[in-house]
């Protein structure tokens, strides 16, 4: 089929694209002939996404690439100049909702810097993960590697691509580090104390998760610091049903006016249990959660919770990798935590004693 184009010299020509099946992969030279430009111009287009080119030239090259279904040979490019435009992010096997948001933030930052991201799952025992990272570093497929789980790496060989380790997940994909930070638990209790609350109950998560242990400890430390009382800690293992049962079994004369849930699911179970007891939230009982599950903003009463900005963390850790790629010092990070309290309808002043 004849395809008209205007070469850079302004002369009108036609380039014929075969309609039959093809077994030969289109080359950059064919793209250049179809677009009527030099292969160096096509190379600049691919490298800089058309930035700095005349719009008409850029459009011709783009059209030629689409018509020929041309795809750059990344392996050949890597062998030639060690530039693939690809970054690898390493994660343990397992699932964590937070990882999706964290990866979204990292991927967005990578795209802004001109890279694509591939997620590589680390199988096998953790002792083998550092060797896997080194193999990827030497493969020529990636320009940089970011590990979101802890690993011990030897001094990297000269010429190998950088590996940056940000230990945000343990070997079972449970959040650690900033993801387990519980400092805002203190802010919640301090505000509730201002509301007149004096006796609290904590519905804890599963202690295999660092976040559950941290939230419990900050809860106890803050009550002790403020001279407040804890009626107790109930281990709920992130279970809404266990939290509901804890509320159903709470003695009517316990004096508890505030329930601190380890996450939003536990808090939802507590609200259900309070409703079954005929207790009004927050008139009789204030209840808080953690994680800012989207649904908690819309159920009555909307839940006071802690939002965790996983995307911000993703952008932060990707910035460290980009700095390593450029041979620059790690960027200075702001001191603002990735968490913030969102105050909603489930908290209010403590009820007056009868």
Structure description:
It is a single chain. By secondary structure, the chain is an alpha/beta fold. It folds into three domains: 2-72, Orthogonal Bundle (434 Repressor (Amino-terminal Domain)); 81-175, Response regulator (Rossmann fold, 3-Layer(aba) Sandwich); 179-308, 3-Layer(aba) Sandwich (Rossmann fold). 37% of the residues lie in helices and 18% in strands. The protein has eleven helices and twelve strands. It has helices at residues 28-35, 39-48, 55-68, 74-81, 97-112, 129-138, 184-194, 210-226, 240-248, 264-276, 310-325, and strands at 2-5, 13-16, 86-92, 116-122, 144-149, 163-169, 199-204, 229-235, 258-261, 286-288, 305-308, 339-342. The strands form four sheets. A four-stranded parallel beta sheet has the order 4-3-5-6, sandwiched between helices. A hairpin with a 7-residue loop joins strand 1 (2-5) and strand 2 (13-16). Helix 1 packs across helix 2 (39-48), helix 1 packs across helix 3 and helix 5 crosses helix 11 (310-325). The longest helix is centred in the middle third of the chain and has 17 residues, at 210-226. The chain starts with a strand and ends in a 12-residue tail after the last strand. InterPro entries: HTH_LacI (IPR000843), LacI/GalR-like_sensor (IPR046335), Lambda_DNA-bd_dom_sf (IPR010982), Peripla_BP_I (IPR028082). Residues 10-21 have a biased composition (Polar residues).
